[in-house]
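Most newcomers find our protein records easier to grasp once they have seen one. Read left to right, the backbone structure tokens trace the chain's path through space. Nothing more is needed to start thinking about how sequence determines fold. An example says more than a description, so a record of this kind follows:
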Amino acid sequence: MSQRLTCIVVLLALGIGWGSTQALGKIAASTGHGPFGLIFWQGIVGVAVLGALTLARGRRLRLSWAALRFAVVIAMVGTVLPTYTFYTSVVHLPAGIMSLLISAVPLFSFPMAMALGMDRFSSRRLVGLICGLAGVALIALPGASLPDPALAIWVPFALLGPLFYAAEGNVVARWGTFGLDPVQVMFWASLIAAIIILPVAVLSGQMFFLAPFGRPEAALVFNSGLHALLYAGYVWLNGKAGAVFASQVAYFVTGSGVFWAMLLLGERFSTLVWVALVVMLAGVALVQPNERAKAVVA
């Protein structure tokens, strides 16, 4: 299989799998577990899954000082902060809306890539950014798509997650992974995230145990393991194809996320939500990978 085809297949698999995590995350948070406790257990499950995978591949878990600093950045920007915004927002917003908002990743990624000198400005891409903003506005319109118009206040907060993911993708694309492979990156990021968030979860009273093990706890464990593997794949794709190409996973996260929300949670959406989906994805389509990114996956 050519590298180009491999990258496309990975992009599809990441999008379909990641789309399900929106609905699974909402199920995990349905019993009132606080975001800090959820982040801790997500990190622990990630450490178990990725540690086992690393050892099964015959790799060592060595860590240089440079790689440690990088892992701390990824733990904060790619795990703690976006996961906190997700678990806080998904309690209030439908999972399908959360999936729609994740399509903002490439819309944030492009200006960052341009600022770092990895992409170029064009009027077409400016139109794409405007379409993305228009899609968000359609979601936030009073009475348009949310069960309660007052929930619109959570839309900007939910958009912080895509902002952090875009930043992480550009960090990886610009500076690399300091000798770590994608699985090792996410192992250390998950471990560091769990260590950082443990005292916060305990002091805030949000720490909890997985027993009794019911549907929310099962969703949390499955979601966490899946998230760890998908995230490692996303880091790999960033390194192989560039941040702008990899960020297009948001296309498929959005589409499959809406599907999973309808299937697993029985969510249904107004006409304006579907219009917003089309407008946002049109915006993403206009923010295409630059020639450099295309050359990497050719």
The chain has a mean pLDDT of 85.
